[in-house]
Amino acid sequence: MDKKTILIFKVCAAALWANEKMGKQERDYVGNLIERFAEDEKGKNLLRKLQTQDINLKVLESEIEDLSKDDKQFIFEECFGIITSDKVLDIPDIKFLKDLKKVCGIENRYYRNRIKEARIYKGVKIKRNLKIFVAIGMVIWIAILFLPRSFSKKDFKELLRENIKKESVNINVLSEWDITGRKKLSAGEIYASMRKSVVTVYVKEGDKRVSQGTGSIIGEGENDYYILTNKHVIESRKSKIKEPQNYEIKLYTGARFDARLDFYSRKRDLALLRARIPEEYVGIIKISPKKYQNVGDRVYSLGTPIGMTNTFTEGIISALRDEYIQTDATIFFGNSGGPLINEYAELIGIVTQSFLFKDYSFAIYSDKITDLLKEKEEFKEEEQKEEKEKTKS
């Protein structure tokens, strides 16, 4: 057994004893690790001995720093799995994860998302010290009373009033007539036909890029093309859409164009940008509704995971949930807002959630695009009514 494998297991053992106790779920998780890491009985016995030792993370820090970025990410995910396996995060657990996050160079945003995912999808509960909880509650209460409120309904309306374009967006949603006689395409053909329809989305504060994701060109207006992405993609980490942001899109050719926020949903993780792009660079994606999808169908994702543009992966539809398509296609942070594509090069979903080292990710059904556009029309109608009332008064 090599030194790197032993080091990784030592860190996992340190995670195991982070709160000085080990439950059944944690024992089972580590038992599974031993089976994965050790090739023979000798190796298993070695890891079992390490499992019972009191190993401190501080002692291992210098060795961890010499590992590659991928190995550090792997260590963090395995330790996170161990600590959350009993579905409880107490103060020692959280302290260990924060220390490990720092040693492994894990970004704060990624760490917060993992905690959020564990709470929502694994049912993990956070146990806090009551005194600390009361103190934090008091601070929040004081803030609510005395600090200015932001992102109210009024803020939302003012922001969209400044940005929304009154024209309708022309999109191509497939009907029952359209699906007859379609021919399935190879992966290479799908990639070639989709490249013009998919863009990288950058959120900028001044000239500085603060976040990025992926978008799909879904339609056109009189002069602009409309790009669909996630709402969480276009949110600046600092301002959370409280003020208009600067946006930039990058095409598959590398060409870049300024974009504007046109609309975002108050109900779903969806947003519309618009940009003026030369026609020869653009391909408008076809939209295939939920009723034409089946579990087991082959699907593809095209996007910009962790900054790697034009990344193309494949998988299948693992399940059709009430609100989401579940897929095992490889998807990572940066794919958010990008398309989930079927074998006919049609948009069937908008990628919204991914889980590192897990064989499942989620995409919003393409049907919700029409709901988003209806929501936009309703907003415009509300604005027109308000304007008429103002003129009357």
Question: Could you describe the 3D structure shown?
Answer:
The chain is elongated. The longest helix has 26 residues, at 367-392. It is 41% helix and 23% strand. The strands form three sheets. It has a six-stranded antiparallel barrel. A six-stranded antiparallel beta barrel has the order 11-12-13-16-15-14. The chain has two domains: 3-126, Orthogonal Bundle (TerB-like); 160-371, Thrombin, subunit H (Beta Barrel). It is of the alpha+beta class and 393 residues long.
Summarize the structure.
This protein has about 400 residues and is an alpha+beta fold.
Q: In terms of per-residue confidence, which ranges show pLDDT below 50 for 5 or more consecutive residues? A: 139-154, 238-243
Quickly name the level 1 CATH class of the largest domain. Mainly Beta
CATH topology title of the largest domain: Thrombin, subunit H
Arrangement of strands in the largest sheet: 4-5-6-9-8-7
Order of helices and strands: HHHHHEHHEHHEHHEEEHEEEEEEEEEEH
Beta fraction: 15-25%
Question: How many helical stretches?
Answer: 13
Quaternary state reads single chain
Separation of the first and last Cα atoms: 81 Å
Q: CATH architecture of the largest domain, please?
A: Beta Barrel
Major beta-sheet overview: 6 strands, antiparallel, barrel
Q: Give average pLDDT, whole number.
A: 82
